Amino acid sequence: MRLLHLSDPHFGTELPDVSAALQRWVATHRPALIMLGGDITQRARRRQFQAARDFLDGLQCPVIAVPGNHDIPLFNLAARIRSPYGNYRRAFGEELEPALESNELLVIGVNSTTPRRHKNGELTAAQIERVRQRLARARPQQLRIVLQHHPVRAVERRDQANLAIGHEQAISAWVGAGLDVLLSGHIHLPYVLPLCGAAGRRGWAVQAGTALSHRVRGGVPNSFNVLDYDGTHCIAERWDYAAPADAFVCKQQHALPLAR
Fold first, then answer.
1. How far is residue 248's CA from residue 260's CA, in Å, rounded to a whole number?
2. Which ranges of the sequence are coiled-coil (predicted)?
3. Block means of pLDDT (10 residues each) for the chain, length 260 residues?
4. Fewer CB near the terminus (10 Å): N or C of the chain?
5. What span, in angstroms and rounded, lies between the C-alpha atoms of 65 and 189?
């Protein structure tokens, strides 16, 4: 089972050559699912959401998505107050925290955004408990994934301020309840880090860069993550856009030992 994790495409700032290369990659590799981790648009405008929807429909793969902070209006204060997710819901449906389940997979979407915060994310006690209970009911063979926008671990000190409020409580509860992989984005910097939960159980944070936007960071080009799962083992791959080849190439691989 091959799963594609995209985050921060920021439609409205997307690069046409990179977008075309991603389309070719999907057509060649045919992932079973695309997991889209927020900041789908740059300014939450209706035309940007429509461009994102059209792009994803053209990939002809199932998609599960959650919003990012850029998917809430910034300058349209009336919309931010009265209907902060209105344009998002028109493009991606009413559910802000979707879930998807099969015999081998459980993906739980978490909305880490809040309209009262400009940039920072937050995980509430109610969200943490809801997800904990759902993870605790997972079947042993399922790869258990939480998909959200804001990160829970950082590799650079300045990114500590970008971690979701409540992340420590979430990590302890979710990894202890069976989380295998937490997927996030927001800071346009890809990496893989271990997560430690209750009773010493271990999971993994897999962080995504920006899939399509010119807003790359730290010398890392546009990138996305791939999870390969065979029912027992999971490998996380990072694919970077290589301009000379005009294609995405596999840059890194991480074996993710699963606690079972």
1. 33
2. none
3. 98 98 98 98 97 98 98 80 92 98 98 88 98 97 98 96 97 97 98 91 97 95 98 97 98 95
4. C
5. 19
Q: Are strands 33-36 and 63-65 parallel, antiparallel or unpaired?
A: parallel
Give the span between the Cα atoms of 13 and 10, in whole angstroms: 6
Please return the burial class of 130, using the count of CB atoms within 10 Å of its CB with bins 0-12, 13-18 and 19+. middle
Q: What integer pLDDT is reported at residue 106 of this predicted model?
A: 98
Report the amino acid identity of residue 121. G
* Domains parsed from the chain with CATH numbers: 2-255 (3.60.21.10)
List Cβ neighbours of 77 (8 Å cut-off, separation of 6 or more): none
Q: How many CB atoms lie within 10 A of CB 127?
A: 17
- Helix, strand or coil for residue 157? helix
* CB burial of residue 9 (10 Å; 0-12, 13-18, 19+): buried
Residues 6+ apart with CB under 8 A from 61: 4, 26, 30, 31, 32, 33, 34
pTM of structure: 0.96
pLDDT in the model for residue 62: 98
pLDDT of residue 117: 77
